[in-house]
Amino acid sequence: MRAPVSPTFSQERKWHVSRLVMRSAYKWDIRLPRVEDPHDVLTFLIYHFQSAGSGDRDQDEPIQNALNALAYASSPITVDALKCFEPTQSFVRGICYAFHDDKPLQLRKAALFFLPLIDNWLFNAPDSVMRDNQVSRLYVGWASTVDSIERTHDAQKAILAVFYGMILSPRWRPHIVPEKWKLLEYFGSVPEDSQFFRKCVDDPGFIDVIRGTEYKSPTAIVFWLAILWLRYKELTARVRERLEEVTKERARGKRMDPRWYLSVMDSELRMAEDELTRHCMQSVAAIALREKIHNLQQARFPSSLSREAGLELDLLSDVLTAHPFLSSKFPRPWILSW
């Protein structure tokens, strides 16, 4: 977007022109112009964050427009550039401002979709840039927004991309309230490129980290073990070994019909096949989906459940009975009595 600006314009008048341009381009979320370089948009966003911080209350719309641009219209080049972005203390105050519960829902939603683009910085920010009270404020604002928006597939992906970073961070994890651990139920929407999810899955000790939250949320470990079983073929040998140990501990003395596990696999397989029909067959997304479909087809076979260990995955019946979401997603549980 370009707009003529006279050299005689005052600084404030130049910002006024920029606000008009951003409003025209990004006020509505239909056919947004691609952001090929985030520098100008970030400059615009930071300026209005600072204005809001200095007491100018009329900044919600320009901040929302800038976040719309970055959250919904970033090109791959912009996404890569944002990975190197290092926010300042004033930027942190601005993000907390955008998540405040008295702000418009569309502003808070844009901020929620923006956070995954800076997640690497977000969960590694030094204390000098993000103080502990700001971590708490940002979590509360994020959690409130999660509760307020429609849980579409894209929203679930954005939520989980940040949630796994929170889980992995010793600084953020204590802020997670018990009911938010139920977000793990959206395991079918995990972004395949989520670095934090990959770290969680690859760390054999992470199972014990989740077990340590059982006093807060007994379902957290149940969901996490189910997620790992769904990805059994992808796990390292150490993670598989720890997964089987913990599963046997939970399953001791109980039985479950393994067809429930197959129903989970079939549901995931159908969703992946449906998603594939919406992509060009030669696109990167289609290639990734075909690989996922292949893995799911392989994982359907009982051999993937470590037959020699005699595991019947009682934990999956625990998942089903512990949360109504899964009962509605998989209407035929086939649980045997014990």
Describe what this molecule looks like in 3D.
- It is a single chain.
- 59% of the residues lie in helices and 0% in strands.
- With 338 residues, it is an all-alpha fold.
- The protein folds into two domains: 1-149; 155-338, no CATH class.
- The longest helix is centred in the C-terminal third of the chain and has 18 residues, at 259-276.
Topology:
Elements: H1 11-26, H2 39-53, H3 60-73, H4 76-82, H5 89-98, H6 105-114, H7 119-122, H8 132-148, H9 153-168, H10 195-202, H11 206-211, H12 219-230, H13 237-251, H14 259-276, H15 284-299, H16 314-322, H17 324-329
Helical content (DSSP H or I, runs of 4+): 55-70%
Count of individual beta strands:
0
The largest pleated sheet is described as: none
Taken together, the total number of domains comes to 2
Distance between the termini: 66 Å
On the 0 to 100 scale, the average pLDDT is 79
> Taking Cα atoms only, what radius of gyration do you get, to the nearest Å?
23 Å
Order of helices and strands: HHHHHHHHHHHHHHHHH
Structural class comes to mainly alpha
* Model regions low in confidence, pLDDT < 50 over at least 5 residues: 253-257, 302-314, 322-338
